[in-house]
Amino acid sequence: MREQAAGFLRSLRLHREHSAPADAGTQGADEAARALRHAARRISGTLHTFRGALDPAWADQLRTELAWLSGTLAREHAYATRLGRLLEALHQLSGASLPAARPPSGSEPDTGDKERAALGVGAARAGALLERRLTLARTRAHSAALQALGSSRFHAVADAVALLASEVPLASTASGPARAVLRAPAELAEQLMLDAVAALPPDEAVEPYNEAHDTLWHQARLLLRLHRYAHEMLRGAPDPALAGPGHALDLHRDAAEAAAAASAAARTPRIAPATAYALGVLHADQRHEVEAARAVFRETWPYAAVSAP
């Protein structure tokens, strides 16, 4: 945990080196913010898993503050990534076979030529609408991140992590070799991950628009990440077998959130029918990407069957 705290402080130093207005939006500034966000998230996850071995009041307070920091820093990057993903998908859809959008009840499907023409008319406007919405959200998130990094709350978090780099407040009951103390919480984190994966619904290839199941997959992603952190804490290195499933769940999250953004944009009042149609096709495309990510997860999962038959 001291190494994680030292990593946070290095990330903070790097971020301060790239915090000048002239560096805003540069690759160095983005990498510094990403490193700081990842360091905060990793410490927060470790505090969550090994809370029983630490001073509980201290661990809870610092974990809450680090979760606030990583969440605040993550939003700007998430909006930028989502916009890029959606615009690229629109561009590809304009010249590729179209996925089946969810049709209104009782309606007849249009011919391919009509669909192509409607998409061509609406894609540019749909892209412009998404760019306005997500750029505004990104700008607000950027302002919130700058405000957070200049706040007394953030400086208190940085001071707490600096102390963590030299001393870890342990619980009074935490005695014995470190590996023995950490093993039980790490095993619990693994079991929670396995339970979450076992609770995932079976293959949904015949049910493309199952947004209600997204929450279960997001929970599995969170618990897999916590298990990876615990494994690294206990073994000193990440588990390479979980890299593929973890990446698949990241793609799943990105596609699900992109689909939700397309759906929300389609509900904008007074947009043209062609724009709404293009957004519907985009939503369908991203939901198919959700399905693809679930399939990759199942193929790369290194444990026993993903779910009970």
CATH topology, by name, is: CHAD domain
- Overall average residue pLDDT: 88
What percentage of amino acids are in beta strands?
Answer: under 5%
**CATH level 1 name:** Mainly Alpha
Domain CHAD: 1-306
Organism: Streptomyces sp. NBC_01401
Protein name: CHAD domain-containing protein
Report on this model:
By secondary structure, the protein is mainly α. The protein has a single domain (2-300), classed as CHAD domain (Alpha solenoid). Helix content is 72%, strand content 0%. It contains nine helices and no strands. Helix 3 crosses helix 5 (152-164), helix 3 (56-93) packs across helix 8 and helix 8 (243-266) runs antiparallel to helix 9. InterPro entries: CHAD_dom, CHAD_dom_sf. This is CHAD domain-containing protein. Pfam families: CHAD (PF05235). Residues 1-306 form the CHAD domain.
SSE arrangement:
Layout (H helix, E strand, L loop, with lengths): L1 H16 L9 H23 L6 H38 L18 H38 L2 H13 L13 H21 L15 H22 L7 H24 L6 H28 L9
InterPro entries: CHAD_dom (IPR007899), CHAD_dom_sf (IPR038186)
Protein name: CHAD domain-containing protein
Organism: Streptomyces sp. NBC_01401
Write out key terms for the chains shown.
309 residues; mainly alpha; CHAD domain; 9 helices; 72% helix; globular; CHAD_dom_sf; CHAD_dom; CHAD domain-containing protein
